[in-house]
Amino acid sequence: MKKLKRSARLVEMTQYLLFRPHTLIPLTVFAERYASAKSSISEDLAIIKEAFEEEGLGELHTLAGAAGGVKFTPKISKASSLDILNDIRKQLELPDRVLPGGYLYMSDMLGQPGLVSEIGKMFATAFADKPLDVVMTVETKGIPLAFATATYLNLPVVIVRRDNRVTEGSAVSINYVSGSTKRISTMSLGRRALKEHSNVLIIDDFMRAGGTIQGMIDLLKEFRATVQGVGVFVESAEVEEHLVEDYISVAKLTSVDPRTKQISVLPGTYFN
Predict the structure, then answer these.
(1) Helix or strand (DSSP H, E) at 158
(2) Which residues on adjacent β-strands are paired with residue 256?
(3) Beta bridge partners of 60
(4) CA 61 to CA 197: how far, in whole Å?
(5) Which domains occur in the chain, in start order?
(6) Which H or E run includes 232?
(7) In this structure, is the dihedral angle defined by the CA atoms of residues 170, 175, 178 and 179, taken in order, positive or negative?
(8) pTM value?
(9) Which of 139, 205, 234, 241 is most open to solvent, judged by the fewest CB atoms within 10 Å of its CB?
């Protein structure tokens, strides 16, 4: 790569780091990429590190030694998270979201790339220090959130299916009880989709009683996997007891009145 002015190099290095989160990058990569001395690269990284931390974009860790380098960990500040939560609450509390039976329409929000990306960054911040191998979700509405989270954690995504598909090869299937309908349902995961003894982060869009998430936890036992965390976009507070106790939620749905179309949303456990 041709030699750049320092201002241009700083911009390019910042972009390089942002697109490679949780990846150890040796200083020699930057030195060769920009035809610059390691001392100059170290000075540039110090400037970027300061900017990241001042703006609440994340942390830049430096590892010394022959096998060292730098690693960018995306983070989002509590202040920025609260701003996102306020936007989420405004959208969720719109009266026309109330569906027959007291259900809440959220599909349009999960189709907003900017919003989904910010939620993914919140989950990535909450679970940044966990030893993780994959992000898991169940089809279909949780998929955008899982991919957004996995992008900031630099991890692959595993999708649990509602039924076994020929294209997945041999699979493990289990029956579970849906927490909202108390109906027996089936979920399956291809044996090639997840290595045994993996460390897994479960992400889901909505949790009422937690039957679906508990089903995924039970399914992971068949793979001898370890659940390192559970992240939920919206949890319902209108249940006496959740089947899942250890989880992080962004927002908490406290009440939905089908008659008056009044919706109440509070901060989730992420803000505790």
Answers:
(1) strand 157-160
(2) 263
(3) 72
(4) 28
(5) 6-74 (1.10.10.10), 78-271 (3.40.50.2020)
(6) strand 226-236
(7) negative
(8) 0.93
(9) 241
First-residue to last-residue Cα distance in the chain = 47
Lowest mean pLDDT among 75-89, 119-133, 206-220, 237-251: 237-251
42 SS3 class: helix
**Angle (deg, nearest 10), helices 78-92 and 113-126:** 130
Closest listed residue to residue 68, CA positions, set 40, 28, 103: 28
Tokens of 160: 């649990």
Burial tier of 125 (Cβ tally within 10 Å: 0-12, 13-18, 19+): buried
pLDDT tens sequence across 165-205 = 767 788 999 998 875 567 888 999 999 999 999 999 999 99
Q: How many CB atoms lie within 10 A of CB 201?
A: 25
C-alpha span between 97 and 89 (Å, rounded):
12
Tokens of 168: 């997945």
- Reduced to 3 states (helix: H, G, I; strand: E, B; else coil), residue 208 is coil
